[in-house]
Design a protein that fits this description.
Elements lengths: L2 H31 L7 H9 L7 H32 L12 H15 L7 H20 L6 H25 L8 H5 L7 H28 L3 H6 L4 H23 L5 H13 L3 H25 L8 H18 L7
Helix pairs in contact: 1-3, 1-12, 3-8, 3-10, 3-11, 3-12, 4-5, 4-6, 4-10, 5-6, 5-10, 8-10, 11-12
Protein name: Iron complex transport system permease protein
Keywords: Cell membrane, Membrane, Transmembrane, Transmembrane helix, Transport
Pfam families: FecCD (PF01032)
Length: about 325
């Protein structure tokens, strides 16, 4: 890479380092004040600073603030998971949905809600376990003297199709109970509260902190398996651990938000196009960008379609799919 290109990329990194946190703050404030009940900004500041008791205090503290925080963690986890999977599999189209992790969490949740409704209070745990176990199964199926990225993607596609068929079968057999499950399958943050945040936060924060230790191995794997081995890296072990970390992050998100797509696919892809492959910048920037995207989309889904609340997963799919197709058509947008 020439010196002008390096300077341009460095400048872009500094720009994103300033813009992304400001963007996250702005969309978070927007998501808190806007909705079926509009909250004046002065009242919001008064409640957050504790200066006075506002009539909006319950709405802000008990409803919208935890929902925004959950949205931040969901977006950060999905974007980080997608960034890791795209690097490990050397495929810019990889994300938790492609390899079946999200489908595993979705099927586990479907079984709990439809077949075992008496255990519905265990929904977050079962969704998390389903996503995690699915990742392990995919890796085992792809193993044959090592697990190449291509084998993992192919195994993931097959498992994804199988889990989707089982989920659809359950919906047909228990059609009288499906109505209550559809919002969760569509993905959304409706009704998310401090309880959901308390459950998700330990898994999400541990996964996001572990991403700090994933930066170096992820960068080395970008060099290719042979080059990484020459540098003394245990390629298969590192690939397995990075996939498990991606599954942990995706499972934490799915457990409270349902099947939210697009975030893990496009956010890291867009960040990569702007600043390059270096995971020292790609991972943290993707986390902030994913958090901002989910919070913004949730705010729009909640306020723009009043009196109904559109599931954020549907909104992200409607907006994201055409935009991603546009990226695919751009010259150099996708590199093998």
């Amino acid at each position: 890479m020439s010196k002008p290109d390096l300077l341009r990329r460095s400048r872009r990194r500094w720009i994103l380092a300033l813009v992304l946190p400001i963007l996250l703050i702005v969309v978070s404030l927007y998501s808190i004040v806007d909705g079926a009940i509009h909250i004046p900004f002065a009242d919001l500041m008064a409640v957050l600073s504790g200066q006075q008791q506002s009539v909006y205090r319950t709405i802000i503290i008990d409803l919208r603030v935890p929902r925004v925080l959950v949205g931040m963690l969901v977006g950060a986890c999905l974007a980080a998971s997608g960034a890791l999977l795209q690097g490990v599999m050397k495929n810019p189209l990889a994300d938790p949905g492609i390899i079946g992790v999200s489908a595993g969490g979705g099927m586990a949740a479907m079984i709990t809600m439809v077949m075992l409704p008496q255990f519905s209070y265990l929904l977050p745990i079962t969704a998390f376990i389903g996503a995690f176990v699915t990742a392990i199964v995919i890796y085992v199926m792809a193993w044959e003297n090592g697990a190449s990225p291509v084998k993992i993607v192919l195994a993931g596609v097959a498992v994804n199709a199988l889990l989707g068929a089982v989920t659809n079968g359950i919906m047909v057999v228990f059609s009288d109970r499906v109505q209550a499950v559809l919002p969760w399958l569509s993905g959304g943050l409706n009704g998310r509260s401090w309880h959901h945040l308390e459950f998700m936060a330990p898994y999400a924060l541990i996964g996001l902190l572990l991403c700090l230790f994933a930066i170096q191995p992820a960068n080395l794997l970008l060099l290719g398996d042979d080059s990484a081995r020459l540098l003394g890296q245990r390629v298969e072990l590192q690939r397995f651990l990075l996939i498990m970390l991606a599954a942990l992050l995706a499972g934490a998100a799915v457990s409270v938000a349902g099947l939210v797509g697009f975030v893990g696919l496009v956010v890291p892809h867009m960040i990569r196009l702007w600043i390059g492959e270096d995971y020292r910048f790609l991972l943290p920037y993707s986390m902030i960008g994913g958090a901002a995207l989910v919070v913004l989309a949730d705010g729009i889904a909640r306020s723009w379609f009043d009196p109904i609340e559109l599931p954020v997963g549907i909104l992200l799919a409607v907006i994201g799919a055409p935009f991603f197709l546009y990226l695919l058509k751009r010259k150099g947008a996708v590199r093998s």
